[in-house]
Amino acid sequence: SDYQSATGWDTDSPTPADPLFVDAENNDFRLQAGSPAIDQGSVEPDRTADHVGNPIVGAPDIGAFEHQP
User: Fold this and answer.
1) Which of 25, 38, 57, 65 is the most exposed place for a label (fewest CB within 10 A)?
2) Which residues does 19 contact at the CB level (< 8 Å), separation at least 6?
3) pTM of the entire predicted model
4) Is 32 helix (H, G, I), strand (E, B) or coil?
5) Which pLDDT value is given to residue 24?
């Protein structure tokens, strides 16, 4: 309970990590290669593209944009 109160996370939540945005200070929230958010989203069969129309292949990335290598 101390952990939950101090962090707002439950005991099964992943440790927050730097998502490695391209340039968050300038509102560029695309993911860099090596981001821990790549392929970590939940698969939803009806969702086949990201916010700007890039195709989702396999597990989606966490966030609005699929990483484009």
Assistant:
1) 25
2) 31, 35, 36, 37, 62, 63
3) 0.73
4) coil
5) 94
Between the two ends of the chain, the Cα-to-Cα distance in Å is: 41
Q: How confident is the model at residue 14 (pLDDT cuts 50, 70, 90)?
A: low
The CB density around residue 39, as the number of other CB atoms within 10 Å, is 15
pLDDT tens digits, one per residue of 20-63: 999 999 999 999 999 999 999 999 999 999 999 999 989 999 99
Contact between 19 and 36 under an 8 Å Cβ cutoff? The reply is: yes
Residues whose CB is less than 8 angstroms from the CB of residue 30 and which lie 6 or more positions away in sequence, other chains included? 21, 22, 65, 67, 68
For 2, the enclosing helix (H) or strand (E) is helix 2-7
